[in-house]
Amino acid sequence: MNIRGHAALVTGGASGLGEATARELARLGAKVAVLDVNLELAQQVAADIGGIALKCDITSAESATAAVAQAAEAHGPARILMNIAGIGTAKRVVQKDGNPAPLEDFARVVNVNLVGAYNMSRLFAAACARLDPLEDNERGVMLFTASVAAFDGRVGQQAYSASKGGLVGMTLPMARDLAQHGIRVCTIAPGLFATPLMKQLPEPVQASLAASIPFPSRLGKPEEFAQLACHIVTNSHLNGEVIRLDGALRMAPR
């Protein structure tokens, strides 16, 4: 599908991988709605790229429904959905004090990363399925953002790995489900990227993490994620696929 002229929704679009993807979509001619819980940052990105910013809590049916409707009012119904919003945590199952990890921490990560992505996808798909088909009878494309932690999560990453593994597991059945509507579904599983969260770590830690990547031995650039995300949109035979973007990284247990 040609990106130019089509409306796109980017969750988590105010920073990191989401911001890079919003910028690349806009560069390629999309009408971009930047969705994020941080409206101030989203507005800054939207102003730079000529898009719109909308406050959106992806875990809320009401908030997500309102954001999708507002984006459609401004740009027309979206044909592109980039599910990039997410959170992470690291908690051992048995804490240092001997107590079990708090259940609410696990539930919160799964609710944002997995349930939130499904929430946005169901709303996008229902609206997109009503649009006129394009070339190859295609109506739209959606992307999930998983992680290499879905496959080789580290100690303490139970919640994060479970949530990202859920996205991996949802990719193929979602693609099969939406094939009748001409909507493609793919997932990117990024490795270690130079996001704002990563940059909060001390320089020696960042350098050590970068050195663990076989080649190139550096942190991934957010624009590299964005380039792959946009290629998935334009390559109409990519469907139901999970693509690792990690420089051949396989994470150690610790």
TrEMBL record:
<keyword id="KW-0560">Oxidoreductase</keyword>
<dbReference type="InterPro" id="IPR020904">
    <property type="entry name" value="Sc_DH/Rdtase_CS"/>
</dbReference>
<comment type="similarity">
    <text>Belongs to the short-chain dehydrogenases/reductases (SDR) family.</text>
</comment>
<dbReference type="Pfam" id="PF00106">
    <property type="entry name" value="adh_short"/>
</dbReference>
<dbReference type="InterPro" id="IPR002347">
    <property type="entry name" value="SDR_fam"/>
</dbReference>
<protein>
    <submittedName>
        <fullName>SDR family NAD(P)-dependent oxidoreductase</fullName>
    </submittedName>
</protein>
<dbReference type="InterPro" id="IPR036291">
    <property type="entry name" value="NAD(P)-bd_dom_sf"/>
</dbReference>
